[in-house]
Design goal:
Largest sheet: 12 strands, antiparallel
Structural class: alpha+beta
Strand content: 25-35%
Mean pLDDT: 78
Distance between the termini: 24 Å
Oligomer: single chain
Number of strands: 37
Helix content: 25-40%
Length: about 725
């Protein structure tokens, strides 16, 4: 059996110094002078990475204080993963509590931050100059949309020519596609709400495809790259108009928002799409940040004044209005105020924290519920005073419970009335008309309210009415009369007349899932004493959702909505780009580790795991944890491993990474454990020393789990030169 490399396992803090190899050998507390050996799993049958384990029961986790000094604190004995008999690593622990001193922001090497909020239903960008971080500038008015309204987001709609070339994005794409001749439209490639595909695809790769409205497929990476390239060109042109001397290449830090519940492959996919779009070069990955949407909202909410918040928990007004009506009325007033203010594209934020945050005590907890078009993301944060940093208390959770669920319910209703086969045929034969119908429903969906008594009219395109008559031999009015129930009627004006009960039924499944998920989260032991529940995202504008959340949780905490609720994530993403250290502690969404060989113990390890190698008995497939699910990991903390090539002249080391949603995993073959990625180390050719003892080449790899993405870096210990290291989640 060939050996590719071997490693010394050691978790350390960023910037700490590693004990010299010779001192580690002398420090081993093992009566056997020869250290125990384990072997890590690498790709290829029968191949293992040889790992040298020096397990010291007194092993420490090195931590970083807020002033950058190293501090050495014993890991708690009860910490997950501290099983010395199975050679698990000492777990990462959060950094020490910040000292009572001001938190200095790192000096920036860029002139401007541009954030792109890439949403399921709508998208936009905003920017801020690093020398004036209190001013956030929204994008210019988009072309198209409602007359007289300065649209600060545009539909996430992409139109490609029949040949697959980029044509347009946003309102322009939607309107152009709408105006195409029905027969011509069948050849054009129109994409909408395509972001959901990245979350729902379990085997996401660089070759994953998306289906256009006409049924034709295009590689997803191409679709996302087209969209991001559009935003880049739009933003860069606006920046150059404002600052002609701006050097685009190095002056811009880009930020792209993604749901917090997205797994590592989806985050890497967005990064690869950004590379393909030319936002940044793969050689300068630090120029692009991936921001988690509820985190971004949380960061922005820190800055809000009381008059920029709508408290749904407030008592009804003295004029006798019911609480439900006062909620709807107050939000309508705020929305009108926002509409008027949108003609000014610059928003000023507090230099410190807003009034609401100033009232909060150290340790106060709150939930941010990001209710978007495709997903609902929940994150639990704790405020750390006086620095204003944030600490995640429970791993991000959520699911596909966004506003798109209401659209799907409407499509199901149409299928019940007109026949599922007809709706499928109409979508395929008249794709542009189907888009028109969904746009008409979207407008009425936004007008739905929990105590509305009058019906809502949804316009049916003429092509729908005509196509149904030709396809079925009868008119749509007949179909409506024959359908069960009396909740949807035909209007003489050529519209579907939906009763309030019918509209409520469309919202109920999606809203119920959101309420159930928030309720489940509030019951977690780590989520006690919640003071605020912030509703953000486009779906949070819905009076239906607002009322449901307030009714369910208003007695437990204050339910609050920022006035510019649809722009909260976008503005927070800009602030995150200006200072990515605001979120100091995160929770690991999964358990990550590698497969190793450990000394076989009779009665403990199963016989089928026995491997005899060089006269010794080893247990195969042991899951060695790097970090456990829901484990607190401070920003900047790393896990280090030292890999040593087993062959002279070896140029590459590849190690498999495994993940699991639970913490009680023992073997990489256990149910729920899957290979999720690889770490690759590219080794430069070096002159090999003549002495066999000094010939061993040590490559020290550092893995960081406390950021929004998993990161890896490596160094050749002997030469102190950087080793090309990469972590890949898209090649499985």
């Amino acid at each position: 059996m060939g050996l590719d490399c071997w490693t010394d396992r050691q978790p350390v803090g960023m910037g700490s110094k590693r004990t010299p190899w010779s001192e580690q050998l002398r420090a081993v507390r093992n009566p056997d002078p020869a250290p125990e050996r384990t072997f890590a799993d690498v790709p290829g049958p029968g191949r293992y990475v040889k790992m040298s384990t020096f397990l010291d029961p007194g092993m420490h986790t090195l931590q970083i204080g807020t002033n950058g000094e190293s501090s050495q604190t014993p890991s708690p004995p009860s910490s997950p993963g501290m099983h010395h008999e199975s050679f698990s690593i000492a777990p990462l622990t959060p950094s020490q509590s910040p000292r009572n001193e001001a938190r200095a922001q790192r000096p920036t090497s860029f002139s401007v931050v541009v954030a792109i909020d890439f949403g399921t239903t709508s998208s936009g960008y905003a920017f801020s100059f690093s020398n004036d971080p209190e001013a956030i500038h929204m994008m210019r008015k988009w072309e198209g949309g409602d007359p007289g309204v300065a649209n600060q987001k545009t539909p996430t709609s992409l139109l490609l020519t029949p040949e697959g070339a980029f044509h347009s994005f946003g309102y322009t794409a939607r309107d152009y596609y709408h105006d195409l001749d029905p027969e011509e439209a069948r050849d054009w490639l129109y994409f909408e709400k395509f972001k959901m595909k990245i979350h729902s695809t379990s085997d996401l790769t660089m070759k994953t495809e998306l289906e256009a409205v006409n049924g034709n497929k295009v590689q997803a990476l191409e679709v996302f790259a087209h969209a991001l390239r559009f935003f880049k060109q739009h933003a860069v042109q606006e920046l150059k108009d404002q600052c002609p001397s701006l050097q685009e290449k190095d002056a811009i830090r880009w930020v792209i928002t993604v749901p917090a519940i997205w797994k590592q492959p989806a985050k890497q996919f967005m990064r690869e799409a950004a590379y393909k779009a030319g936002l940044v070069s793969p050689a300068n990955p630090e120029q692009l940040l991936i921001a988690l949407e509820p985190e971004a909202a949380s960061i922005y909410c820190r800055k809000l004044r009381l008059n920029q918040l709508i408290d749904l928990s407030c008592k009804p007004l003295a004029n006798g209005l019911a609480p439900e009506l006062s909620i709807d009325s107050s939000f309508r007033q705020a929305r009108e105020q926002l509409r008027r203010s949108r003609h000014s594209r610059t928003f000023l934020v507090e230099s410190g924290v807003g009034e609401l945050w100033a009232e909060m005590q150290a340790g106060d907890r709150y939930i941010v519920a990001d209710c978007g078009g495709g997903t609902v993301d929940l994150t639990v944060h704790q405020i750390e005073q006086p620095q204003g940093t944030l600490k995640e208390l429970y791993k991000a959770s959520g699911g596909p419970y966004g506003a798109v669920g209401v659209d799907l319910a409407f499509e199901t209703l149409l299928g019940q009335i007109f026949g599922e086969d007809f709706i499928a045929t109409f979508k395929a034969k008249r794709p542009a008309a189907w888009v028109d119908l969904t746009i008409a429903f979207e407008a009425r969906k936004r007008a739905a309210a929990p105590f509305r008594s009058n019906p809502l009219n949804v316009s049916l395109p003429f092509s729908f009415i005509d196509f149904y008559r030709r396809h079925r031999g009868q008119n749509v009015e007949t179909a409506l009369k024959r359908s069960s129930g009396n909740v949807v009627k035909w209007s003489s004006q050529g519209m579907l007349r939906m009763s309030s009960e019918a509209m409520n039924d469309l919202f109920q499944p999606t809203v119920s899932q959101i309420i159930r998920h928030i309720d489940d989260l509030l019951k977690k032991p780590d989520v006690k004493g919640i003071k605020f529940l912030f509703l953000v995202g486009g779906f949070a504008e819905s009076a239906m959702l607002q009322h449901a959340v307030q009714s369910a949780f208003g007695s437990l905490c204050r339910v609050i909505i920022p006035q510019d609720v649809g722009l909260t994530i976008l503005k927070g993403a800009v602030l995150f780009g200006l200072d990515p250290t605001i979120v100091r502690v995160r929770r690991s969404p999964l358990t990550y580790g590698v497969g190793v060989l450990n000394k076989f113990v009779e009665g403990k390890h199963p016989k089928e795991k026995l491997l005899v190698k060089e006269g010794k008995n080893w247990c195969t497939d042991i899951f060695e944890k790097f970090v456990s699910v829901d484990q607190s990991v401070a920003l900047g903390e790393v896990v280090q491993r030292s890999y040593c090539p087993a062959r002279v002249g070896q140029r590459k080391i590849i190690i498999n990474i495994y993940c699991c949603a639970t913490d009680d995993v023992v073997y990489i073959t256990d149910p729920g454990v899957r290979k999720c990625g690889t770490i690759s180390l590219e080794l430069d050719e070096v002159d090999e020393p003549s002495s066999p003892k000094s010939r061993r080449r040590e490559i020290r790899a550092s893995m960081q789990f406390g950021d929004t993405e998993l990161k890896v870096a490596a160094m050749d210990v002997r030469t102190s030169k950087t080793v090309r290291a990469a972590i890949d989640f898209l090649s499985n």
